[in-house]
Amino acid sequence: MADDDDEIILSELDDEELVAQMFDDLYDGMKEEIEEGTRILLDRGWQPYDVLTQALVGGMTVVGRDFRDGILFVPEVLLAANAMKGGMAILKPLLAETGAPRMGKMVIGTVKGDIHDIGKNLVSMMMEGAGFEVVDLGINNAVEKYLEALETEKPDILGMSALLTTTMPYMKVVIDTMKEQGIRDDYIVLVGGAPLNEEFGKAIGADAYCRDAAVAVETAKQFVARRHNQPNA
Predict the structure, then answer these.
(1) SS3 192
(2) SS3 210
């Protein structure tokens, strides 16, 4: 009989307990529980935006912090992000209907010649977790692909990733082309990947180098907030 006591019935928890439980479930990467919790809060009359920010983003913030501090590792974060995606899938159409405020929009992709995507995927998921809309171009992106995406998606941020020292310089090609076309200043450009560093980011003209996904989210938030505070920027 003791087993029955361990079974948590989500629908029996009050709102506060449920949100706390969703934090735990996100942390443990329990997708079905997150989907169920999301539905319960909506059924109780929560606004989709509040479910997103308080339950999902709140929970991912804890995950991001522990990832940054080395308590959690990539596989666990991917599991948590995947659970978050389950909740997001339910909320997305509802958020679109209610015209919920969003943090901003990001186009992200690994550069030409490079087929690594774990770091990029992590950034995408963490950014979505923070309330950004993310358009992921995948791997091996030529400059044309980035420019095309900037034109069609009109994001606030362009994120580029590279894991090979040989593909790093291609980031400069993209930024230089943006400069030539006079559109460099229209976007916040963030770069990341194991072989990069701050000096490299500065040298190629990026706005910032982000050493991991948690830093990328913080940096993106700061730049977007700064941009919104400038009149006509």
Answers:
(1) strand
(2) coil
Q: What's the CA gap between 231 and 233, in Å, rounded? A: 5
Pair type for strands 132-136 and 157-161: unpaired
* Placement of tokens 């509802």 in the chain: 94
What's the average model confidence in pLDDT over 16-27?
Answer: 97
> Which domains occur in the chain, in start order?
8-100 (1.10.1240.10), 102-233 (3.40.50.280)
pLDDT tens per residue, range 172-204: 999 999 999 999 999 999 999 989 999 999 999
Give one DSSP letter per residue of 23-62, joined into a string.
HHHHHTT-HHHHHHHHHHHHHTT--HHHIIIIIIIHHHHH
Average pLDDT over residues 200-217: 94
Among residues 196, 212, 195, which one has the least CA distance to residue 119? 212
Beta carbons within 8 Å of 88's beta carbon, 6+ residues apart = 52, 56, 128
* Over residues 51-67, mean pLDDT: 88
DSSP letters of 145-173?
HHHHHHHHH--SEEEEE--STTTTTHHHH
